[in-house]
Amino acid sequence: MRYFYALGLLFCFSNLIQAQEIFLPDSIKKQTQAVRIDHSIKIDGKLEESAWSTANPITNFVQVEPFQKQKASQKSVFKLLYNKDYLYIAAVLHEPLGKKALRVTNLQRDFEYGRSDQIGISIDGFNDERNAMIFMTNPYGSQRDLLAFDDQVFDEDWDGLWRVRTSRTDTAWIAEFSIPWQTLRYQRSSDFNTWGINFFRMRRMTNEQTIWSALPRSFTPARMQYAGKLSNISPPPPKANIRFQPYLLISEDRYDGSEFYDQKNGSKVKMGGEIKWAITPNTVLDLTYNTDFAQADADRQVNNLSRLSVFFPERRQFFLENASLFAAGLSPIEEYFGGQQRIQPFFSRRIGLDAEGNPVPIVLGARIVNRSTKSNTGFMYVRQKGNEINSATDFLVGRYSQNIGKQNRIGGIATLKNDSDHANITASADGFFRINESTSINTMAMTSKSTNENSTGLAAHYQLSHRGIDWMYWLTQNVNNKAFNPEMGFVSRPDVIENSAGFYWLNRGKWLPKFVRAFEPGGYYLNYYSTTTGKLIEQQWNTNPIWFTLQNGGGFGVLTNHFYQLIDYADGSDTLSFFNVPIQGGKFKYDRFMIVGETDASKKVSLSMNVDFGKYYNGSLTTFSSTFRFAPIPHISMEARFTNNSYSNLGVDKAAGNNQLYTISGRFALNPRVQLIGFYQHNSISDFDVWNVRFSWEYQPLSFLYLVFNQRGFNDFQTQLSNDGLTRIRTNQLARQHELHLIAKLSYLKQF
Fold first, then answer.
1. The Carbohydrate-binding domain covers which part of the protein (predicted)?
2. Cα–Cα–Cα angle for 114, 117, 119, nearest 5°?
3. pLDDT confidence tier of residue 616, bands split at 50, 70 and 90
């Protein structure tokens, strides 16, 4: 009950400070118009066509960072043209220091926001002040695009079909976009429409963010209530359009080791593809056959020092698009908010991957999504091929959400996993409610049931979070009982009740030195209780007394953590183990300390590191991590990461030792469309090695040639057949396991 009292107090507090922190959208919106032309524009980043001189200049940008609503220090000019096929956008970004002032560390598509010079356009074609399509580029023409809803749900891995080219001079950099009407989503209710639109820029040398229609710094440019209006635009009527993307793949596979007994050496040729049909501007159907993800990034290894399961993100394009619609559940919104628990009734990595992250063939799949100003609906079906270990499996997920008012919604999601042995069903109801511009409540109730189990699983959560100009705070509570088992979902930790609350003070007082942008101290508390025994099994007090965000984007801070851990083996479970060191049962109280620092990540050379030290269960542990980045020119970027764990007097045997995790990665780009990317990792635990090297050539928009080299090796206990010749058993002898793949994949996209 005390958490509901706290929720009420935070509700009152959030409304009290809201009026002091956040300015509201202008009642009279900024306006602009696009000029219609009857010919095409050559997209070369030079703006030499005379038509650009007829377009209305869009200027008078204001700052988001560091000083809200103050005039931008450098001039930015955008212009809009359109014809029957394309919306054209030009931008001239004045830079008095010329090319030497530009900061771009790599030419990656979907580059990281805020780490380079960049510009973007947010378009709300439905004019509902909720939906946004965002198109971005940097001075060297890399593309970044995403879909957003309510500045809270993002499809960052959506790839639209559009083009951009850039050029650089001694006084400015220039960008020129062409976006097909078929890529844009909009409704046409008359001959002339009004859309929401905003334009934004990051000048990374001074870490200054500017925008055309003013926005509080606690929001992103996807907050379309603050956008201006593009009026009197007359695009062609929306019509169905189809994207057809077949592929041809040739691979050579080699396996060595008893863990790969069900894999066969040899060459293979594979064909498949995908069809995307935008039936209406609101409804999109995706079909996939003989799906392949050879070009997807390999998972990066981590050393997990917590009692939570590691969450590896989805990297496969078919599942990434519209992922935000299906991603209902509880997750840490960002580094500041929430506890550590993650609960999702649907997690796409349960499809087409085994427990170790190895691919399982997908025969076919279909997904249909409908988004409108009133509701969002999605259905997905995938058929997974069977093998010697697992039978063929059908996966089905359905999602519905209903918009309520201007910024609220309720919904539900249901999943079904069905194979020859059993079926697992999960059903959930959820809601999102925005109390005011910076405060929201996210809540959900879930149940799961398997046909081969008698008990029914239950889970629920709520999370209140506030991100304002001066304060951030949250209150989270969730529960999932021991029987809760969403086989198509993800749960960080079963059989727990988690409670978490915390805050950060975002201070920009005049007392700060000029090189410091903000002083952001804070802290949080969280605990876990077992739903089975009712015992407190983990507790953590975190204080962050020192954190300084620097003007150049770097930062440094000091953190302290006080832990309580209960390891209880009354249920007969195996001994808890870290670094292959078993930990005995009992109660443990210990303190840990962390020092963190990061330099300006936009420079040619940058460094981040942290030292985490102190007691650890019944022993001690010091963890040192560092990342070194080197980007002499935008076309070359390299990164080296190193983590060392040094422990002593740990566990049952009072063990001492060290283990290391090394990562070396690089990106070498002729331009944003021709790149060689690779990484190597070595983990001293199990002597794990992995290589992933990928050549990528986008020979026309969203059509690719990939050449991929994957190699993985590790030590594991050998597996052999039992005397009956049917059952496989583990031996006590370590053996080297090794696999290698050489892949050539050609894809082609045609839009009708």
1. 43-198
2. 85
3. very high
For residues 706 and 695, the answer to whether their CB atoms sit within 8 Å is yes
Q: Is the pLDDT of residue 97 over 90?
A: yes
Q: Is 665 helix (H, G, I), strand (E, B) or coil?
A: strand
Measure Cα distances from 568 to 30, 485, 587, 730 in Å: 62, 22, 8, 28
Which pLDDT score is estimated for 424?
A: 93
Neighbours of 25 (CB within 10 A): 16
The DSSP letter of residue 5 is H
pLDDT tens, 395-413?
Answer: 999 999 998 887 899 999 9
Q: What is the pLDDT of residues 278-310, one digit of tens each?
A: 888 788 898 988 888 776 666 666 666 666 666
Give the N- to C-terminal CA distance of the chain in Å, as an integer: 58
Under the banding of pLDDT at 50, 70 and 90, the label for residue 730 is low
Residue recorded with tokens 């965002």: 134
Q: Are strands 362-371 and 375-384 parallel, antiparallel or unpaired?
A: antiparallel
Secondary structure letter of residue 113 according to DSSP: T
* DSSP-derived secondary structure for 464-517: EEEE-SSEEEEEEEEEE-TT---TTSEESSSSEEEEEEEEEE-B--TTS-TTEE
CA–CA distances in Å: residue 88 to residues 185, 215, 218, 249, 434? 16, 25, 30, 36, 35
Residue 273 Ramachandran class (φ > 0 left, ψ -120 to 50 alpha, else beta): left
Residue of 250, 247, 391, 263 lying closest to 712 (CA atoms): 263
Distance CA 106, CA 629 (A): 11
**Beta strand ranges found along 257-348 (DSSP E):** 266-278, 283-291, 343-344
Structure tokens at 676: 């060689």
CB 574 within 8 A of CB 605: no
Per the CB < 8 A criterion, the answer to whether 672 and 140 are in contact is yes
Q: How far is CA 647 from CA 136, 338, 622, 629, 651, in A?
A: 46, 29, 6, 28, 10
CA distance linking residue 213 with residue 58, whole number of Å: 11
**Going by C-beta distance under 8 Å and a sequence separation of 6 or more, which residues neighbour residue 434?**
150, 407, 408, 440
Side by side, the strands of the sheet bearing 163-168 are 35-36, 76-82, 86-94, 172-180, 163-168
C-beta separation of 234 from 34 below 8 A:
no
- Does the CA dihedral 41-47-50-52 come out positive or negative? positive
Share of the chain above pLDDT 90, in %: 59
Residue 335 pLDDT > 70: no
Q: What letters, b where the CB count within 10 A reaches 16 and e where it falls short, cover 406-429?
A: ebbbebbbbbbbebeeeebbbbbb
- Examine the pLDDT at 5 and tell me if it is beyond 90: no
d(CA 701, CA 99): 27
φ/ψ of 39, rounded to 5, equals -140, 175
Question: Tokens 């010329």 sit at which residue?
Answer: 98
Q: 0.85 cut: is pTM over it?
A: yes
Q: Which of 516-520, 646-650, 715-719 has the lowest mean pLDDT?
A: 715-719
Alpha-carbon span 125 to 262, nearest angstrom: 51
Cβ atoms of 518 and 508 closer than 8 Å: yes
Residue 334: what pLDDT? 44
The DSSP element (H or E) to which 463 belongs, if any, is: strand 457-467
Instruction: Give me the mean pLDDT over the 688-705 stretch.
Output: 93
Pairing of strands 516-519, 536-550: antiparallel
Cα atoms found within 13 Å of the Cα of residue 597, Cβ hemisphere only: 7
DSSP letters spanning 51-92 = GGGGSPPB---EEEESSTTSBPSS-EEEEEEE-SSEEEEEEE
